[in-house]
Amino acid sequence: MKKTILALLVLLLSCTMIFAQGSAETESASADGEYKVALIIENTIDDRGWCQAMHEGIQGAMEALPGKIHYEYSERMTTVDAESIARQYIADGFDLIIAHGSQYRNMVSDLSQEFPDVSFAFGTSSDIIGDNVFTYMPESEETGYLSGIIAGLLTKTNNIGLVGPVDSGDAARYNRGFILGVEAVNPDATVNVAYTGSFSDYVRSGELATTQILAGADVLTGSSQQAIGALRACAEYDNVLWLGQDLAQLDTPEGQAKCVAASAYNYTAVVIGIIESLDEGVTGGVCIPMNFNNDGFVFDYNEALSSVVTDEIRAKVDEAIATFTASAGVLSNWADVQI
After folding, report:
1. Which one, of 192, 198, 133, 200, lies nearest residue 158 by Cα?
2. pLDDT tens digit sequence for 50-63
3. What is the pLDDT of residues 85-127, one digit of tens each?
4. Angle of helix 227-234 versus helix 202-214 axis, rounded to 10
5. Is the pLDDT of residue 32 over 70?
6. What is the sign of the dihedral through the CA atoms of 61, 64, 70 and 75?
7. What backbone torsions phi and psi does residue 121 show, to the nearest 5 degrees?
8. pTM of the prediction?
9. From CA 334, how far away is CA 336, in angstroms rounded?
10. What sign results for the dihedral spanned by CA atoms 152, 153, 158, 160?
């Protein structure tokens, strides 16, 4: 009996030592300053749009903060699949899970309550939904305004097309900013807006763009990854141009031929902001805005199409960027635009 008790005590002591060792390893992993960051996306990291922008933003943050971020990602995640993979990341000890899309809001809300020691982020949203949830909201009326200026000055038919995913979030802001930009330089032009109802429906986007082109549109734009379908449709027609909502579109064959200029979201600034907040002990409850004023946006022209960009276009775009950079919230009237 004494031998049995002694054996049990030895076993218990061994288990205690193993547990203590595991705890020490966990503390050491946190103490070394590296955060385990996971990205969950609906599309792919090379979609020339929404998902690629965040992937590259995290990579940019890794370069800016060497040794601070261990990064993994999961692609093509439906809302159902996303929860399963998020739970796996949580089990694997990830510190921050970025569910990149407003469609993941409910999942993030539920998991953040179930796992208060894990930080989450999703966007676009300006809502605060938990003390351990970061949100981010691109004030994309600014990028839309730049595209609108260019479209309004380029169009020869005064018929402009816009193919959007849905009328919400940053897409809604981009669309209304675009209309404000067109109106500022060409009040005679008409902007025809159509929605695919999806962030990833390339086929429907191409169909809507084709319909607009056949109706006389000679300049088009659109946001999110679905816009690639519309850009490809533009490539099928002469004398039709495109304004992009991601710099990656400038590098595609279709973009080289048709995309005059593009803006992009600088998610590096967002990710760095979140990591710095975690360093300060802030685990969420913060909305991070993105605008030209805080380096949340970048803009560039397609040099292959520089001949179509007049001095007037460049001057007006430069003026708008300078105004946005000097002060945030310049286009606070974007929500008043009726579509």
Report:
1. 192
2. 899 999 999 999 99
3. 999 999 999 999 999 998 999 999 999 999 999 999 999 888 9
4. 40
5. no
6. positive
7. -145, 145
8. 0.80
9. 5
10. negative
Q: Write out the two tokens for 132.
A: 């351990």
DSSP string, 20-42: HHHHHHHHHHHHTT-EEEEEE-S
The Cα 97–Cα 38 span in angstroms is 5
> In 3D, which of 105, 1, 98 has the Cα closest to residue 50?
98
The string of pLDDT tens digits covering residues 229-277 is: 999 999 999 999 999 998 989 989 999 999 999 999 999 989 999 999 9
- Name the residue with tokens 């739970």: 87
User: CB–CB of 337/176 below 8 Å?
Assistant: yes
Determine the Cα–Cα distance for residues 154 and 151; give it in Å rounded to an integer.
Answer: 5
Q: What does the DSSP assignment read for 110-174?
A: HHHHH-TTSEEEEES------TTEEEEEE-THHHHHHHHHHHHHH-SSSEEEEEES-SSHHHHHH
Matching residue, tokens 């890794």: 62
| Residue the block writes with tokens 């993994």 | 72
Q: Which two tokens stand for residue 126?
A: 């300006």
Q: How far is CA 235 from CA 204, 224, 241, 298, 300, in A?
A: 16, 18, 8, 24, 20
